[in-house]
Amino acid sequence: MNNVRFIRALGLRNIHFQVQQRYQLPENSLAIADSVLVNPMALIPMSEANRWYQQLEIQTNNPDIILEVAAGIRPQNLGPIARWLFSGIDLASAIRRLNYGIASLQSGAYLAASQSGRIIKWAYQNPFIDINNKAHDGVRAAIFMCKVIRHYVGDDFVPMRLMLPGNRDNRARYEEYFGCDIGWNHSKTEVWFPADLRLTTQSNLRSSAAPLAMSFAELDEFLNMPEAGDEVKALYEVLNYSCHYGFPTVERVSSLVGLSPQQFQRRLHTIGMNFTSITAYVLSNIAVGLLDKGVSIEEVSQRLGYQNVASFNRMFKKQRALTPKQFVARLEELR
């Protein structure tokens, strides 16, 4: 379970819904449930993101689907994360924020900038992307990186050179979009640009007057990325994700962490846990969030996959020492 990595929904959601709309695809037809992507900060296991990339291409029969759709998406529309990123005074500060902040947006991936003479090479790599999806993921990253640069230095920015993993037959289409020569089959994604562009004197100065604060709920979600090797927190987030597909089962959750049901149960036993108790803990946390938003007890029970409210009530009281009805009453007293 220590190899589970996650990506936030905000990295995929706009592409997901644009593809559905453009190709008139039915709901829940792209490997990841639509409900997962409603919350931009939701964590998605990278194994599911890999299936999602594959389904994008299969469902559209278009190997260039990422370029086709992502080119029209604006990074400024990413909510609180965009407010934080684009409050930087110049390109150098934005790149630094992204290089450090990517760990909270996509575990296992990294961004780094290095200077070679008068050239900055801004690189992205994610070793948890399947080899058949590396071109898709690299193009998605390159488009985002170029749009960040253009936000600071102007819409006429063109990279000096672009390096991409994987390969594509229609190379001319990519060179036309990025406006530069592209090197394929590279080990990572690299955007090359003149080093002077990082300087404040070369950037369009940005006002920091826009509100930067996150709500408590947004902050909770921003801080929930499990660190590498933290099996327990990774399991919590896999269970959170699994809840979008009905009541969590050993079979589904074990498949998401890359183990057989038997291996998964043995691993839980080794770390002193059992599936029933950890599932109840996660479900009670989800229930608290929904009840706090005014969702009825009956609807919460249904959303979590319980066949009847009585079973949900028993689980909740065991976890929180209050019935859901008592918990709602307590919330009303505190408001």
Number of strands: 7
Radius of gyration from the alpha-carbon trace, in angstroms: 22 Å
Order of helices and strands: EHEHHHHEEHEHEEHHHHHHHH
- The total tally of domains equals 2
Number of helical runs? 15
Strand content: 5-15%
What's the short story on this structure?
The chain is α+β, with helices and mostly antiparallel strands and 335 residues long.
Chain-wise SSE layout:
Elements (H helix, E strand, L loop, with lengths): L5 E3 L4 H10 L20 E3 H15 L4 H6 L9 H6 L5 H15 L4 E7 L2 E7 L8 H20 L7 E3 L7 H8 L3 E2 L5 E6 L21 H7 L8 H12 L7 H7 L4 H10 L4 H18 L4 H7 L5 H12 L3 H11 L1
Parallel strand pairs: 5-6
Antiparallel strand pairs: 1-2, 3-4, 4-7, 5-7
Helix pairs in contact: 10-11, 12-14
Description:
By secondary structure, the protein is an alpha+beta fold. The protein has two domains: 63-211, no CATH class; 216-334, Homeodomain-like (Arc Repressor Mutant, subunit A). Helices cover 49% and strands 9% of the residues. It contains 15 helices and seven strands. It has helices spanning 13-22, 46-60, 65-70, 80-85, 91-105, 134-153, 171-178, 216-222, 231-242, 250-256, 261-270, 275-292, 297-303, 309-320, 324-334, and strands at 6-8, 43-45, 110-116, 119-125, 161-163, 182-183, 189-194. Strands 3-4-7-5-6 form a five-stranded mixed β-sheet. Helix 7 links the parallel strand 5 (161-163) and strand 6. Helix 10 (250-256) crosses helix 11 (261-270). It is globular.
